């Protein structure tokens, strides 16, 4: 017991001085500890939640100021508490033991949720819940501001892991992203107050008006009418449409990746060569035109705002997402020359499609069919008319012929009157 | 983008893994695809068939103890997609501009790309100008002096490669990685020296982080 009466640091080793009145914690860790013990009834909950969210830098600078204030001599026995104290790694952010970090970073989302409920991960869960609640309830914050906050929240999560555990860190971040975004989805996605809805409508109309674009105009690397083309395009169309039904940015992204992978497969089997960026992009443009995915603009905006930036900037999903952005940008700005058409031809097609926009999709081909049928009918009628005329002519000719035959017969009869009775008598 | 500096943002310890995004620019038939396939999978032409795609490839490197994850992004090079360039090369750390030494036009295209890249991304990005197909030296239409002088004038490095004969490609990527690491380190230092208060705070945190780092050393030895 020679250590008595010695200034002692907080049990969490956070850098502040502890106080025996707070069981050897500093005030801040003590509040945290109490909150952990009874998270729901604690009146400090909201307050401390906000404290946690403060970025690291300010906390550390506070540390410098507060050190003097806590220079009181404290009495605290290290040995008896060592085992529990070692549970907490030092640092001003939340710290967890290695097994806890590992269990949180398991790939499966449901396992992550289980790990999050364990005692040691409580502070993290509380922090997430507080954050989610604030994002859901505060309607005064704009979506962009919320995006900023979500991003800085991700940044803080990454601080739990040392550099050599970067893989685990990425996985935890994925899980956190899914947890947070699934729950705040409704309060940030395609809000009425934002311009997103109008842009969605604009893009939707634009794609509709381009329904006449053919694979040949886009120079798709797929053999026209082949099975690969049909399969690849229809699978990727389904995947693109599916994107709107997912909530977490990573799930939306994986729909985009799925779409691209279907396209890759059909390109490769048509060309017998690996697909290049030009191949992929032109196919993706065509699929997007065919799919006309619901709320496309909102989805793109949402992913850029709330996705883990690392995934979006450099990862494979990021590449596919970039291609989708390129496809949309191409569709928005597309002109006659980008499809290899002449100006007037392009105009005519655009106007033609405006009339038919209400039919959409297969409407164009149906209309073409109707037009063709009409032409056929007109021709048929014409042929029928001539047939009738010819038949009439024939009828007249026939009448004339019978008449002429009768006239001839009468003539002959009058020329050679038959005296049938006399000769037989003479003969006999 | 709320969180800036996603790509090559670096920590301070040497165990840090660098992630770099490199875009591949160039006209249709200059051999971009062959170049990158040769580098990442050591394949050329007939063996291509087994690979599904050559538009997004990755490679892991270890340069002087520094781990580097390289993501190579092919970009659509056709004229009709020209306007989409900025979407592709946003936040990239390096760019490889490929031309065909037998095709003067493809070299002009490279010049256009360089102008655009410098305009959009400034000097942050490491540029490599690559004359491909040196196996066709006899049909050369772009002179070595001209190309090298041009590269120097825009602060880029010039390389000669042949994807067919597997010449110069390893050197190209290795050199590029080294330059990107340098740029990232300069960036880090600039950030560290920025506001003096936060610098001090960071040092404070690092002292506390001692223990996990000891664990990292153990992990490295066993692995």
Automatic annotation (TrEMBL), chain A:
Boundaries of every VPS9 domain copy: 197-340
An annotated Gene Ontology molecular function: zinc ion binding
A20-type domain segment(s): 4-38
Protein name per the record: Rab5 GDP/GTP exchange factor
PROSITE patterns hit by this protein: VPS9, ZF_A20
Pfam families recorded: DUF5601, VPS9, zf-A20
GO biological process, one term: vesicle-mediated transport
Species, as recorded: Engystomops pustulosus
Top-level taxon of origin: Eukaryota
Tagged with keyword Zinc-finger: yes
Keywords (A to Z) from UniProt: Metal-binding, Zinc, Zinc-finger
Record has Metal-binding as a keyword: yes
Lineage: Eukaryota, Metazoa, Chordata, Craniata, Vertebrata
SMART domains, alphabetized: VPS9, ZnF_A20
GO cellular component annotations of the record: cytosol; endocytic vesicle
Automatic annotation (TrEMBL), chain B:
GO biological process: protein transport; Rab protein signal transduction
Name under which the protein is recorded: Ras-related protein Rab-21
A molecular function GO annotation: GTPase activity
Keywords: GTP-binding, Lipoprotein, Membrane, Nucleotide-binding, Prenylation, Protein transport, Transport
Classification via Pfam families: Ras (PF00071)
Mode of membrane association: Lipid-anchor
PROSITE patterns tied to this protein: RAB (PS51419), RAS (PS51421), RHO (PS51420)
Assigned GO CC terms: cleavage furrow; endoplasmic reticulum membrane
SMART domains: RAB, RAN, RAS, RHO
Subcellular location: Cleavage furrow; Endoplasmic reticulum membrane
Family to which this protein belongs: Belongs to the small GTPase superfamily. Rab family.
């Amino acid at each position: 017991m020679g250590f008595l009466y010695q200034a002692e640091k907080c049990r969490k080793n956070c850098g502040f001085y502890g106080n025996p009145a707070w069981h050897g914690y500093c005030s801040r860790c003590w509040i945290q500890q109490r909150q952990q013990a009874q998270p729901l009834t604690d009146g400090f909950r909201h307050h401390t939640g906000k404290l946690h969210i403060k970025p690291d830098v300010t906390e550390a600078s506070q540390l410098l100021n507060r050190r003097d204030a806590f220079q009181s001599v404290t009495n605290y026995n290290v040995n008896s508490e060592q085992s529990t104290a070692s549970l907490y790694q030092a640092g001003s952010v939340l710290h967890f033991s290695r097994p806890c970090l590992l269990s949180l970073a398991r790939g499966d989302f449901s396992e992550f949720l289980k790990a999050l409920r364990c005692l040691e991960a409580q502070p993290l869960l509380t922090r997430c819940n507080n954050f989610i609640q604030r994002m859901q309830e505060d309607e005064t914050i704009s979506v962009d501001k919320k995006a900023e906050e979500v991003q800085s929240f991700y940044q803080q999560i990454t601080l739990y892991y040392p550099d050599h555990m970067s893989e685990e860190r990425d996985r935890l971040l994925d899980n956190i992203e899914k947890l947070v975004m699934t729950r705040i989805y409704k309060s940030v996605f395609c809000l009425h107050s934002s311009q997103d809805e109008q842009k969605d409508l604009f893009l939707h109309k634009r794609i509709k008006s381009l329904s006449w674009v053919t694979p040949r105009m886009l120079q798709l690397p797929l053999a026209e009418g082949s099975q690969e083309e049909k399969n690849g395009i229809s699978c990727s169309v389904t995947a693109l449409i599916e994107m709107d039904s997912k909530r977490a940015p990573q799930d939306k992204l994986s729909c985009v990746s799925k779409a691209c992978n279907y396209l890759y497969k059909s390109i490769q089997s048509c060309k017998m060569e690996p697909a290049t960026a030009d191949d992929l992009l032109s196919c993706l443009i065509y699929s997007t035109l065919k799919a006309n995915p619901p709320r496309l603009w909102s989805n793109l905006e949402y992913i850029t705002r709330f996705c883990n930036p690392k995934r979006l900037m450099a990862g494979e999903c990021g590449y596919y997402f970039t291609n989708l952005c390129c496809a949309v940008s191409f569709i928005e700005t597309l002109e006659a020359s980008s499809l290899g058409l002449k100006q007037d031809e392009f105009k005519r097609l655009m106007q033609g499609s405006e009339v038919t926009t209400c039919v959409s999709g297969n409407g164009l081909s149906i209309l073409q069919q109707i037009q063709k049928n009409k032409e056929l009918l007109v021709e048929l009628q014409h042929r029928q008319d001539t047939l009738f005329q010819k038949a009439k002519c024939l009828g007249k000719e026939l009448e004339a012929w019978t008449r002429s035959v009768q006239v001839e017969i009468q003539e002959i009869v009058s020329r050679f009157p038959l005296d049938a009775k006399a000769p037989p008598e003479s003969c006999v | 983008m709320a969180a800036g500096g996603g790509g090559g943002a670096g920590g301070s310890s040497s165990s840090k893994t660098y992630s770099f995004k490199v875009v591949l620019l160039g006209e249709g038939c200059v051999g971009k695809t062959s170049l990158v396939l040769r580098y990442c999978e050591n394949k050329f032409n007939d063996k291509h068939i087994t690979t599904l795609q050559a538009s997004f490839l990755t490679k892991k490197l270890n340069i002087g103890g520094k781990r580097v994850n390289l993501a190579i992004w092919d970009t659509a090079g056709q004229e009709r997609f020209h306007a989409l360039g900025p979407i592709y090369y946003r936040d990239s750390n390096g760019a490889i501009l490929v031309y065909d030494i037998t095709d003067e036009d493809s070299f002009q295209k490279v010049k256009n790309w360089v102008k655009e890249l410098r305009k959009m991304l400034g000097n942050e990005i490491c540029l490599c100008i690559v004359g491909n197909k040196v196996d066709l030296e006899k049909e050369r239409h772009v002179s070595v002096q001209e190309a090298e002088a041009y590269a120097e004038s825009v602060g880029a490095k010039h390389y000669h490669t042949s994807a067919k004969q597997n010449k110069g490609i390893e050197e190209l990527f290795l050199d590029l990685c080294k330059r990107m690491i340098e740029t990232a380190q300069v960036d880090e230092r600039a950030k560290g020296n920025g506001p003096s208060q936060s610098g001090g705070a960071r040092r404070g945190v690092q002292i506390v982080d001692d223990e996990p780092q000891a664990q990292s050393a153990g992990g490295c030895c066993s692995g």
